[in-house]
Amino acid sequence: MNKTKNEEKIALNESRQLEKLKKIQSKGSSAFYFAVLLCLIALVNIVDEVASNLSVTVQSSLVTEFFVNNALFGKTYTYEEGLALHSTIGVFSYVFGLVTPFYKALADKFGRKPLFAFSTFGMSLGMLITYFSTNYIVYLIGYAVIGFFMGHDMQIIFILEEAPKKHRAKIYSILKALGILGVVFVPTLRSILMGNDPTLWRRIFLVPAIVGFLACLAVIVFAKDTKVYISEKIEYLSKPLEEREREKAQRKAEKKAQEKQYGVINAAKYIFSNSDTKALLISHIVFDVGIAAVGLYFESCMHIAGMTTDQITKALFVLPLVYASQTFLSGFIADRIGRKKTIALASSICVVFFILFAVGINKLWNPYLIGAFAGFYQGSFWTGRDYMNVMMTEKVPTEIRASVVGAEGLLVIIGMAVGYILMVVGILKIPAWLMCLIVTVPSVSVAAVMLMTKVKETKGANLEKVEVL
Q1: pTM for the structure as a whole
Q2: What is the pLDDT of residues 3-47, one digit of tens each?
Q3: Buried-most residue among 21, 61, 199, 433 (CB within 10 A)?
């Protein structure tokens, strides 16, 4: 009797959901809505990029305050010791990253929009907590909250599932570039709110937090789920419950069937069940060994080399402009020559300009030139990494796409962790800039070669026709 009532309740809920989805689908998507959606994605991208850059761009200020000028854990430290300890503690904040993929997988069950809005809210909350941080513990809480939510990547799925396939990479790169251009707000805030006083670093977290809350509200009011997700969900819900159970005869119940369809563990099994997706994942893991060296220490490298707060700010003005220009062009390149060659080109640029950046800071070259070098090596690294993500999304079916993205995000932590450990140990022994090169150059180079030789191209993939293996 309870089972019958439960089935009736499920049928009623699904009927309501199906009716709602069909109503949304019948309205279609106008050019105006697509333009609004692109604006929303661009705005969230800006919040995402700013949130991911704020702590890094004031790294020397917070290390000096919390570790050098004040006693932490009963002692004071040299800058290098403080930086190493800060990096070590930062690794533990990535424990939250172990949960993130399971959080992302909820988008396959409940839709893209709810996760898109909530993740934007979470990033903004993290920045607000950091603004009010009175000590290192509170700062770490804010940092962890930002880190948990900024890796949601729902905007990537929105773009890939809404954009025409022949323009998919172009639109993605344009929106990504606009988000990176928003990082110009970081040195702008530094210049206005910090000047040449590094102790005022907290001030730059408030404005982007407010913008993020407004962006979250805009997503709730104006966005709707992607047409690909709605279509797939309607097709799934249109089948009678009995038919779905027959199709999944080997599974004990509908709940278990949904777990198999949506779960991160099964998404990981899917990746490893195919030699192509497995090779792509391994390449991504190796590539991500360099992620800490590329993204976390450039401001400290400039500080240690003798650049002042004002000079670092000047460099930071140029960095996002160069970075954004690369990102903008990458989409046109990726649609022309393919994803694989784009990643290989980006990897080569990363290696060359990282070396030039290391030489430049040690020679105390013009800060704007140093900022350009940093923009080239960072922009090319993230371009390569982004298109590895794009390739994975273009290789898997819609119904498990978000789950696979989540599983991929969980598994690449292996590479991140290795790179983190190498950096934390290395910066106590040799100069930070040299350790960054030792970690990044081999990992990026090896990953690019693996991808070029082992992974199939995905240019022009039809996302609606990718089948489950």
Answers
A1: 0.68
A2: 566 666 767 776 777 777 777 666 666 678 888 888 888 888 888
A3: 433
